[in-house]
Amino acid sequence: MTVTALLAAVVAAVGAGLDRPVVLAAVGAACVVAVVVGWVRLLNLPSPRGSTAVLAIAAVALVVTGWLSRSPERGVADLRWVLAALGLSVLTAFVHQLARRDGRPRLVESLAACVAAILIIAAWAGATPYLEHETARAAALVVACSVAVATLADVARGRWVDDIPAVVIAAVFAGIGATVAARAVPVGALPAWAAVVAGVLAGVGSYALRQIFFVQPTQSRRRPQVASGAASWLITGVVISALVIVS
Fold it and tell me: Distance (Å, rounded) from C-alpha 230 to C-alpha 40?
């Protein structure tokens, strides 16, 4: 999962550095596919086919509406259709539970897991309309560098330290990555310290999501590993959106 997160962050950083929004969008799309394919196996959910179908429908709806909502001429994108797709996706998850014919074991767990995956996908879909904004390059670069460097904390957590010290280490590493990126490419009129704080939030949030799933027995398999790493990149879309809006 660490390799997946690192790879996504590095490719996104290269895309941002070259000012290629399509590369950022492609990284997000690939991570969405990884989550759809591997999320059910990651959490070993009941009704795997139905749950995967729900996530696939949600992914298509959110990614398409996010892409069609992009508007580089505006300071703030119109996310009404993304929000509508999010609401319908959550509704689909409830309908799926009603349609189950297996006695609905682990109902709450299954529903919560599907909704969580939908929200993770929505975090990136909400950032998609901003990828062509003039400050999106710098915002994405700060976030990508923070996440990439923060993956080093995964190694520390697995070998030497406990949870709390590892979070501190992740924050320090993320701060280093964000500082280098913010100095190289300023995020609009935003002060460098604010960009660094946002980078730390992205790096620590991404690290925390990976560690939540670290203890899952399914992590011995490839698809769950890729899904958790991909999800840890997708959630940083919220930070990219916020940086573009405030800058």
Answer: 14
Tokens standing for 143?
A: 């976030």
- Judge contact between 116 and 235, C-beta under 8 A: no
Output the CA torsion sign for 73, 79, 81, 85.
Answer: positive
CB 204 within 8 A of CB 99: no
Q: What is the per-residue pLDDT across 93-102, written as a single tens digit (0 to 9) for each? A: 999 999 998 8
- 47: how many CB neighbours lie within 10 A of its CB? 21
Interatomic CA distance for residues 124 and 70, integer angstroms: 13
Q: CA–CA separation, 247 vs 241, rounded Å? A: 10
For residue 218, the 8-state DSSP code is: G
Q: Is the pTM for the entire model greater than 0.90? A: yes
Task: Enter the tokens of residue 220.
Answer: 């011995």
Per-residue pLDDT reduced to its tens digit, 208-226: 999 888 878 888 888 999 9
Amino acid found at 221: R
Q: Please answer whether residues 85 and 67 qualify as being in contact, where contact means their C-beta atoms are separated by less than 8 angstroms.
A: no
CA neighbor of 137 nearest in space, from 22, 17, 9, 14: 17
